[in-house]
Design brief:
Length: 167
């Protein structure tokens, strides 16, 4: 929050762009991140995954789409003299976490792992629905290139090769 106030303070003399980034995923990401951990557990056919009910809706976006958005915003920033600008970057479509995990299970061809939805309670103050306004970014010409299946397929293929896991 302090950083945003700092940007607003300096925006009278220079262009300041604040970017709110939703959940991005990528090949070779940190194994503690949700997407990478689930992929790894499913590729290794872990016997059971304990999860929440999975009704939370999130916006997952592939890293190359994030990079495209950042490049576009950097170029846009060069055209500005001053002001505060706010952009959100994420997917154009939310997905429930339960559906996301089920999709990962399908894409990893895993028929063994039991998904124990509801075994974990929601966190206190859990945000149940991600809400984004991508219109300002789209008006600048940004377009999501990778749908969820395409991005996840690239990520899964990389993780299979990295960990030498047979399909």
């Amino acid at each position: 929050m302090f950083f945003v106030e700092w940007l607003k303070f300096f925006s009278s003399s220079l262009p300041c762009i604040n970017v709110a980034l939703e959940i991005f995923y990528e090949p070779n990401d940190d194994s503690s991140k949700f997407c990478t951990k689930i992929i790894y557990d499913l590729l290794n056919k872990k016997s059971m995954l304990n999860l929440t009910l999975g009704e939370q809706e999130r916006s997952f976006i592939y890293v190359e789409d994030v990079a495209d958005a950042f490049m576009l915003l950097l170029e846009y920033g060069l055209t500005l003299s001053h002001g505060f600008y706010y952009f959100e970057v994420g997917s154009q479509q939310n997905i429930k976490l339960k559906d996301f995990v089920l999709l990962l299970k399908k894409l990893t061809n895993n028929t063994n792992t039991q998904l124990n939805f509801g075994a974990i309670n929601y966190r206190q103050h859990e945000i149940m629905k991600c809400s984004l306004n991508l219109d300002p970014l789209i008006k600048l010409g940004w377009k999501q290139k990778y749908n969820l299946v395409q991005g996840l397929t690239k990520t899964i293929s990389f993780e299979q090769a990295k960990h030498k896991i047979n399909k």
